[in-house]
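Protein modeling request. Please complete all fields; requests missing the sequence field cannot be processed.
Requester role: graduate student
Desired output: 3D structure, token encoding
Chains: 1
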Amino acid sequence: MDKINDIKIIASILFEYYKKVALNPEETASIIGRSEDYLKKDREEAIGIPYTRLNGKERGKPLYNITAIAKALVQNEKRVF
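Delivered output (81 residues):
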């Protein structure tokens, strides 16, 4: 399958499971198999999965779009030959 379809499938599965389009750090960390501290470090260093803040405020709760999570998973995939 091509990467765009993989992203669509993963995003669809995430939406079906969580019933929302953006996830909090705890949910995101469990999906990618990392800690919330790992995500926080990525946010501080402006790397990793793109995120938004609740209500667009600097101190708002970070939220990760399920499509961005799916895209990060697919793009970081390594091929095994």
